[in-house]
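Fold this complex.
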Amino acid sequence: MNNDSSSLIVAELAEWIARAAPGVQLASTRELVARFEASPVTVQKALRTLGARGLIETRPGVGTFVRSSRMPQPLDFDWQTAALHGTPPPGRSASAMLRVAPQGAIALHSGYPDRSLLPERLVRAALARAARTDAALARSAVSGLAELQSWFARELEEATPNGVTPPSANDVIVLPGSQSGLIAAFRSLVTPGRPLLVESPTYWGASLAAAQAGVLVVPVPSGPNGPDPTMLDRAFEETGARAFYAQPNFANPTGAQWDGELTQRVLDVVRARGAFLIEDDWAHDFGITSNPIPVMARDDGGHVVYLRSLTKSVSPAIRVAAIVARGPARERIHADLSASSMYVSGVLQTAALDVVTQPAWRSHLRGLRQQLRARRDLLIDSLTEHVPLAHLTSVPRGGLNLWVRLPDTTDVAQLVAECEQSGVLIAPGVEWFPAEPSGQFIRLNYAGANPESFPQGMRVLGEVLERVV
Amino acid sequence: MNNDSSSLIVAELAEWIARAAPGVQLASTRELVARFEASPVTVQKALRTLGARGLIETRPGVGTFVRSSRMPQPLDFDWQTAALHGTPPPGRSASAMLRVAPQGAIALHSGYPDRSLLPERLVRAALARAARTDAALARSAVSGLAELQSWFARELEEATPNGVTPPSANDVIVLPGSQSGLIAAFRSLVTPGRPLLVESPTYWGASLAAAQAGVLVVPVPSGPNGPDPTMLDRAFEETGARAFYAQPNFANPTGAQWDGELTQRVLDVVRARGAFLIEDDWAHDFGITSNPIPVMARDDGGHVVYLRSLTKSVSPAIRVAAIVARGPARERIHADLSASSMYVSGVLQTAALDVVTQPAWRSHLRGLRQQLRARRDLLIDSLTEHVPLAHLTSVPRGGLNLWVRLPDTTDVAQLVAECEQSGVLIAPGVEWFPAEPSGQFIRLNYAGANPESFPQGMRVLGEVLERVV
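Structure:
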């Protein structure tokens, strides 16, 4: 260490200042020169260092004083602008979608089901039981709780047809929410700088995850019936991509569900291209007039990597999801997750498993189906009655959202802002497009707000739309 | 869609197969040609597609059969090797450090304290209470629970000296474990492809996080007294780096604690270079003969970004940590986290806050201090007695580890393997070096194993070391 005399003076004075009262005056430079037997230059240098450390302040013509923390002084972070290189943060922020609605607002913007749709009694009992288990004090394995891995594997096995080998519990890795799984899958299967095909529109969280993983998003158009396999094949050929991210069941935002033929044709394309289908089965528990069959149940060639979350259906406080993959892909994802999220709280895993293995979970899901159906239909009726200019792209057979097309002349940003001023929160469609939007859209969530507010919400939307169209 | 005749045959046969029993024979190609009024080429193409889908299998000279899932058939994932481009996974896997010790082994390799060192009663009661709160069913804000943010801010405020403005609750973002905070800080403050200075040796999780964030790690030598500020300054100058990651209190693995003068000199370098100090205060609750004072408490210029975790001291099942940053840096980190981890389970946040605000938490920490001291001293005594070839680099004033230098001729990998065969798990020092190790080291954790096993563990280590040196 370089113990020059200026540093020694700094050290001694700093120690004195730490014990001094704020506002106390320091000895003069002349006195300090004498006390430390140093040159005035050395003393001045020491005082400058103390000033830069925020320990003292000089009042010109008066003297030098111990700085007071009471003294209001704006903090200066200007230097950060240079240090951060002006690079914009990767991707858009999720804050808009995740923001908490103000009291009294009709919240049709968020993707989370209302508390009345959650299995409250099961969740509270499961958490209380988990608090008494060993899981409350232990670290979990990176792959997760063995019994929970098995539960996820069994759910897939039940959907697996004759002749296809279902994934095993060992192919399952438990996640702290599916976002970390998306990032891990994109980073380890696509690798930074390489292309990833995604449906357009698609879940905004996937676009954020792609930006975080540093992969290049290539949109493939997808409508109310899902993507066109011919366009998908062309996109693989053009870009050399080796992975396609999609939500085959009740896609967010369109609500599209792939039929059996489309599923097979997409699988054929993916297999022929030696590629992965990253299947995000986000709405597995939210079927209304149709049951979702995971595409992964039809593939044992390791082409499908499957994501399944319990966060939205069990409780947003029980952030537990799983990623299922086979072969080297599973190893890559496992290595990535062991370095990023490391492991999932055993309490949350134990509670999640407890909830989904209770007999009451099945009956809860049946009731949820009825409630989602009633909510969906009421919102559609209100939309049809009060917003004649809107076009519902399709009646979703599951999921939580309506995908609504507006006249091409609509200023959607203004629509969203004016609706918010009138207490109605809606989500602008542009958030779901990885590139330019193919039209003017909004997404309306029927799971979050009180259904009694739907007619009023749609009345406001209809009135504002008339103005901004 | 392209409904060519081959696709139609595939669709019809696939439907038939789904209902057929495994092992049933399909009609012959001739019969299929007749039934579908198609050419033999078209029928063959359809059968190839069905084969590729794993629905049928052809036994040459016998016929074509519905594939049976019972039939053991090795799955073939060879194609993935090409799709994954042979790119190695980013960074090393954490599995070695996170692996669970086999029953009966003396586990000196892991970084997690034994259950007997955790506040078990407080944790169970806090989780049970949290299960009854609104937090059990609600989504948390991205920044975290306001009361928990305040608690983290208050802890820093209490350490902040006169004349320095302490961070506010708004500067705190709650994390699901500090690993996600490291990745977010590296990605948003350093940005991919740019240099990050780190102590060498340093926490292996930081090296993993740097690889995940795509930043380039530049090691700065650090010994039992911490890094040399002159070398640090030179590394900033040489590389143009704008950030330095360090553990100023009880560094993992060396146990080093920066003294007041070194802290100031590092801060002076960091300020002069317009850079960030990313301070990982991992062992804040693990002081033994010294109390850790966060470096952040001495800076209100936004130069220090501070990480503080409760996972190791409260419970590994309550994965809650915080990152504290000010100015644009805080905004960048917040945006990154909202896209990666999104939010932390409200149940875990509520339980963590409950534990650390109980009066019994303070007395628990006092008892923990005594236990860590006894464990540390017993392991040092056992090491000194049974492993005369080992050199303890310093007696740590806090933390959970001894950093032990071995003779330069030691084959550490063989040492670790042979110790494991004799039931003693130790961690090879190479894991903590971001580049080449500067010598032969092992890390011995005194917080995980039963202290009664320390003499036996060191006897084994001593015997094996004699053989492999």
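Chain B touches chain A through 130 residues (CB under 8 Å).
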